[in-house]
Amino acid sequence: MGITDTLSERFDVAEHGSDVRTELIAGVTTFLAMAYIIVVNPAILSEAIVIEGYEQIQVFQMIAIATILASVVATVVMALYANRPFGLAPGMGLNAFFAFTVVLGLGIPWQTALAAVFVEGILFILLTAVGAREYVINLFPKPVKYAVGAGIGAFLLFIGLQEMQVIVAYEGTLVELGDVVATPGALLGVLGVLFTLILWARGVTGSIVIGILTTATAGWVAAIAGLTTPGNVVDGDLYSTFGEQGLVGGLTTLVTEVQFDFTPIAGAFIDGLADVDPVTFTFVVFTFFFVDFFDTAGTLIGVSQFGDFLDEEGELPDMDEPLMADAVGTTVGAMLGTSTVTTYIESSTGIEEGGRTGLTALVVAGCFLLAIPFVALVPLLPDYASFLALVVVGVMMFQGVTDIDWSHPAWTVSAALTILVMPLTYSIADGLAAGIITFPIIKAAMGETDDVHPGQWVLAALLVAYYALQTGGFIL
């Protein structure tokens, strides 16, 4: 039996309507869409993590290694235990909360913040083991479950367009259309999106990967040909390095200068458990817990709907298994020295390419592992090339709105708020909360209280209490 047959049998690839080649392409696609986290996560956390005797760039590279290893562990668990095509990595938003609110804002040592993430992970493991997380997620109203995919799509679209500088900040209206034609990166990004959508519409396999790599190549060609200032379309420092030392010399220099030893941050959470203020520590753990719980729930439901994994009740069969991968990833990530690990919405890019099993996730983990020697080279992929995948998939994910009964007021209100609040608040959790809270209220107003599960009332009440405390400034 060849390796292809072995992989196919191990992951039940044929039974899921896929094949090994498709799974491989899907895994590479998801990795390319997630690869930005190798740079972005350490860029955020290194602002808060300061280690005596080490420069910030060295700390940056330590965190990059920890980010990769945490992603590998969590995604391998997802592949081998859950057999789902979902990639995991330290979550955006949670890393910013870790760095800017907890460490820099509250003055809590970064070791203590890692300890809070570790405790959160242990709690998730315990709750997942007894089925509590799956029970709560299954209480989500149907219209919310069916709207999550489109909500995440709108969120992805919004993030992608901002990162490509197609949408920019504006004081009067918060956002506006950027100077696309005058901004080379934005222009290449828009052309890359259009090119990728054309490939997708024509049914070209690997359209997103092709779009990303073609757009990145176009940027480097534009820089080398002198069509624009290199820094406008590629990493300026990398371009200068290659210009001074040549291709081989530049690659050698960048790889050999990476700080691969990350032991100064690995295990630091143990020191963080000493001398903690119980009240503050509890609030930090709770906030990490709440945001991660609902972000993960929304992501799993959204990408599962996109991949047609949900059953007739809008539930993901054996959801405890991917949830456990998330919990293990968070715990291991804290031990290695990084913030909360969660399932990534970018997994939908690989699912769009046909990924249906854990083999896709295993490929994602393999790509992360292979990236270790090339941590310094990740910037070779310009932001506008990476983020075009989010724009493309964001558009595609709106296909899920056809499952929503827009003629029913309770469905319309909860689904619409779920979709719209996510990008407007920059939070999957806030969008879910809006839909969960309004569904039983509108149902009751229509005299259909018998259709509302008692647990949905409890969940809505808890969310109201949480947001009253949060927006009132009583908790973090």
Molecular structure report:
Keywords: Cell membrane, Membrane, Transmembrane, Transmembrane helix, Transport. GO terms for molecular function: purine nucleobase transmembrane transporter activity. InterPro entries: Azg-like, Azg-like_bact_archaea, NCS2. Its main location: membrane. The chain crosses the membrane at residues 24-45, 57-81, 88-108, 114-132, 144-161, 181-201, 208-227, 247-269, 281-303, 323-345, 357-378, 384-401, 413-437, 457-475. It is a single chain. With 476 residues, the protein is mainly alpha-helical. It has one domain. 66% of the residues lie in helices and 3% in strands. The chain contains 20 helices and four strands. The chain has helices spanning 3-10, 20-34, 37-45, 56-82, 94-105, 110-129, 132-138, 142-163, 184-201, 207-224, 236-256, 268-272, 278-306, 320-336, 347-352, 358-370, 383-396, 409-425, 428-445, 454-471; strands spanning 88-90, 167-170, 174-177, 341-343. A two-stranded antiparallel sheet has the order 1-4. A hairpin with a 3-residue loop joins strand 2 (167-170) and strand 3 (174-177). The chain is globular, with a radius of gyration of 22 Å. The model has no long low-confidence stretch (mean pLDDT 88).
Compact overview of the structure:
By secondary structure, the protein is mostly helical. 66% of the residues lie in helices and 3% in strands.
Label this structure with key terms.
single chain, 476 residues, mainly alpha, two-stranded antiparallel ribbon, 20 helices
